[in-house]
């Protein structure tokens, strides 16, 4: 083989390699991100249980830890004892006025006897007036005593109600001392350890749903007419040195505002261009990681 033939083969080989490695047919480039949530403590105290490790996959509603509830429980028992003490001071209205009721019953029986005598002419009008006056006095005493007793009880009950609300608040704090994972996902970072003292709002762990990731990419305004929400697109990630792995993706978000091209995406000459951010939802088979670069092809 002559020298010219050898040079020709080398040039053709380089050309084919360059074509195989070229990704110029991609319509957009970006990086994968996930819906990440920072879970914080909702109570104060010692973290007596916290069975969690970074990389753990946990379900929504799963109990993963406990902050010491003994101080809250003792305070709750104290409040309950206070309510019982106030209840013992509450007056039993019927028992307090039973004497007056029985007295009224006796006087009413006497009035019926006098009415019969009066109808027969054996009793005077004054006797009737006197017996009716006695009943009126008893009725006034009954009313006054009932109102006094009810006022006293209302005062005691008004002291009980705030304590009952305090018990409800303690119950809520006790419930929040049980650390319940709110969403299904994978633990990315753990910020607290068992037996550590934690306060309300202290970050406990970082969780993300890695089963469904989003490729955040940028496209030029002239490509906006090619896409729409819910549209299916092809997503690619690097697999090995020269190959790409393909996924089905769905456009889930398109920015309504343009922005300058991020430095990490394009060359210096193209940074002055205005682009639009988009997100493509991709079901992850475990190969895609947060921060990994990806490519999108619309057609």
Can you tell me about this structure?
It is a single chain. With 299 residues, the chain is an alpha+beta fold. It folds into 3 domains: 24-35 and 209-297, Elongation Factor Tu (Ef-tu), domain 3; 38-69 and 180-207, RNA polymerase II/Efflux pump adaptor protein, barrel-sandwich hybrid domain (OB fold (Dihydrolipoamide Acetyltransferase, E2P)), CATH 2.40.50; 70-177, no CATH class. The chain has 4 helices and 14 strands. The chain has helices spanning 3-21, 70-89, 93-119, 125-177; strands at residues 28-33, 36-40, 45-50, 57-58, 63-67, 178-180, 185-190, 197-198, 203-208, 212-220, 232-239, 243-260, 274-283, 293-297. The strands form 3 sheets. The protein has a 6-stranded antiparallel barrel with strand order 1-10-13-12-11-14. Strand 11 (232-239) and strand 12 (243-260) form a beta hairpin. Helix 2 packs antiparallel against helix 4 (125-177) and helix 3 packs antiparallel against helix 4. The longest helix has 53 residues, at 125-177. The radius of gyration is 42 Å and the shape is elongated.
Most strands sheet: 6 strands, antiparallel, barrel
Distance between the termini: 44 Å
Class inferred from helices and paired strands: alpha+beta
- Uncertain runs are 1-23
SS summary, helix count: 4
The spatial strand order of the largest sheet comes to 1-10-13-12-11-14
Mean pLDDT: 84
Strand content: 25-35%
Q: Give the helix proportion (percent range).
A: 25-40%
Radius of gyration: 42 Å
Order of helices and strands: HEEEEEHHHEEEEEEEEE
């Amino acid at each position: 083989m002559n020298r010219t033939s050898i040079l020709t083969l080398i040039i053709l080989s380089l050309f084919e390699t360059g074509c195989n490695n070229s990704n110029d047919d991609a319509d957009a480039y970006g990086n994968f991100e996930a819906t990440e949530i920072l879970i914080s403590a909702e109570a104060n105290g010692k973290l007596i249980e916290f069975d969690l490790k970074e990389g753990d996959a946990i379900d929504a509603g799963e109990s993963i830890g406990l902050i010491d509830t003994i101080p809250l429980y003792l305070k709750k028992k104290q409040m309950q004892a206070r309510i019982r003490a106030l209840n013992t001071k509450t007056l039993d209205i019927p028992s307090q006025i039973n004497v007056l009721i029985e007295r009224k019953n006796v006087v009413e029986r006497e009035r019926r006897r006098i009415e019969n005598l009066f109808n027969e002419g054996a009793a005077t009008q004054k006797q009737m007036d006197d017996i009716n006056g006695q009943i009126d006095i008893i009725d006034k005493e009954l009313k006054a005593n009932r109102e006094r007793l009810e006022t006293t009880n209302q005062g005691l009950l008004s002291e009980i109600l705030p304590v009952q609300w305090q018990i409800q608040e303690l119950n809520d704090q006790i419930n929040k001392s049980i650390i319940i994972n709110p969403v299904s996902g994978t633990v990315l970072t753990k910020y607290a350890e068992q037996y550590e003292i934690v306060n309300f709002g202290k970050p406990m762990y970082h969780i993300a749903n890695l089963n469904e990731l989003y490729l955040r990419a940028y496209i030029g305004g002239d490509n906006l007419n090619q896409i729409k929400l819910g549209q299916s697109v092809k997503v690619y990630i690097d697999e090995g040195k020269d190959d790409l792995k393909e996924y089905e993706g769905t456009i889930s978000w398109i920015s309504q505002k343009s922005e300058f091209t991020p430095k990490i995406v394009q060359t210096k000459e193209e940074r002055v261009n205005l682009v639009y951010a988009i997100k493509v939802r991709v079901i992850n088979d475990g190969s895609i990681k947060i921060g990994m670069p990806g490519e999108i092809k619309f057609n």
